[in-house]
Amino acid sequence: MHYLDIRLPENVDELIGCYMYLTAKLRALWIEYVNFVESPYTTNPSSLYKIVFSEMDFFEGLRIEVSAMLPERTLNNLRNLDDYSGW
Predict the structure, then answer these.
(1) Would you state the pLDDT for residue 85?
(2) Where are the domains of the chain?
(3) Would you call 63 exposed, middle or buried from its count of C-beta atoms within 10 A (0-12, 13-18, 19+)?
(4) What is this structure's pTM?
(5) In whole angstroms, how far apart are CA 81 and each of 6, 40, 52, 55, 67?
């Protein structure tokens, strides 16, 4: 499934919830990947690279679609959330 195939809500409150969920999901994926790569037991981090970054690409694309539907002021406030890109 492609992220453009997902039907998004039109209600601003529901879109805010979607944005927050997607931000949390992206952060969790990034943390999972970093922990995996930094683990002393990891022998080949590239094996997980394709999977994690494909998943991150999906959620990031979806978050961009949600962002396009939100008012600019709301989006600016949401961008202050702690997300994976602040690392």
Answers:
(1) 52
(2) 11-70
(3) buried
(4) 0.81
(5) 24, 31, 22, 20, 14
